[in-house]
Amino acid sequence: MAQRRMFSKKITDTDIFLDMPLSSQALYFHLNMHADDDGFVSNAKTVKRMIGSSDDDLKLLLTKNFIFAFESGVVVIKDWKIHNYIRKDTYNTTIYGDEKEQLSQDENGSYTLSPRAVDEPSPQVRLGKVRLGKDSNIYSSSNDEPHIDLKTFKEIISYLNEKAGTKYRASGSKTQRLIKARFNDGFNDEDFKKVINIKVAEWSGTDMAKYLRPETLFGTKFESYLNQEVKKSKTNKGGDSYGGLEF
User: Fold this and answer.
1) DSSP 209
2) Do residues 198 and 159 lie in contact, with contact meaning Cβ atoms separated by under 8 Å?
3) Are 58 and 82 contacting, i.e. CB atoms less than 8 angstroms apart?
4) Under a CB-based contact definition with an 8 Å cutoff, are residues 53 and 27 in contact?
């Protein structure tokens, strides 16, 4: 039976996706078409060459967290289960069980790397002239990946806790992974503070205050938040719309 693959506009109609070059978008679609029923792709480099995409296109998909890569060279589509629902009578479980064990799912069905996958030391995955650290989710050249010390993590999280009245820990592996990913995107500690200020001003005192957390603020919508104008917070009454909210 031929495999059928679907795509959700919740992913492909977002600014972060549409802002990528068409070659990167095409690579994403083709990787989805070659994925197994759990979203794993074992021949990403072959697919890349087949459609004429570049290493930079693959690097960008990793940087933007549209895919995750493993030590084995296998990649997985992060939002596979948002795109596809496969009936039990046609579903074939992946043969990449070791890689699947390193993943968990968030409340939306997206894959996330489990803390075990992030915390354990491991070899680097190499692909051409760039490499993927299994603890970072992204490609980087061997000499230009920034080093982030614990003091930086603490300063950012302390600032969030002070402004939002929260009690998050800077030592959390997921929090550190998100912060590191944004630094690898080229942002700095002042950008983190600006995003915190913008979203605290917008969400404090509303039903959205619960999203003043690292997972939301420092995720893939970070750049969109950074470019927002500061808004005064207002209380949500009787089903008011938060039109355009991204989290």
Assistant:
1) G
2) no
3) no
4) yes
* Tokens encoding 54: 């570049």
Residue 226: phi and psi, rounded to 5, are -60, -30
Side by side, the strands of the sheet bearing 130-132 are 125-127, 130-132, 139-140
Q: What is the tens place of the pLDDT at every residue in 138-184?
A: 344 444 455 677 889 999 999 999 999 999 999 888 899 899 989 98
Q: How far is CA 231 from the centre of its chain?
A: 26
Q: d(Cα 52, Cα 49) in Å, to the nearest integer? A: 5
CB contact set of 229 (below 8 Å; sequence gap of 6+) = 198
* Residue boundaries of the structural domains of the chain: 9-140, 150-226
User: How buried is residue 155: exposed, middle or buried, by Cβ count under 10 Å (0-12/13-18/19+)?
Assistant: middle
Question: CA 245, CA 247: separation in Å to the nearest integer?
Answer: 7
Distance between CA atoms of 15 and 105, rounded to whole angstroms?
23
Average pLDDT over residues 44-64: 94
Could you tell me if 25 and 63 are in contact, meaning their C-beta atoms sit under 8 angstroms apart? no
Full-prediction pTM beyond 0.90? no
- Tokens for 154? 């603490």
Asked whether the beta carbons of 41 and 52 are under 8 A apart, the reply is: no
Residues 64 and 75 sit within 8 Å (Cβ to Cβ): no
Query: Could you give the CA distance from residue 71 to residue 64 in angstroms, rounded to a whole number?
Result: 19
CA distance 35 to 38: 7
Whether 31 contacts 44, CB under 8 Å: yes
* Start-to-end CA span in the chain (Å): 38
- Please, what's the largest Cα pairwise distance for the chain? 56
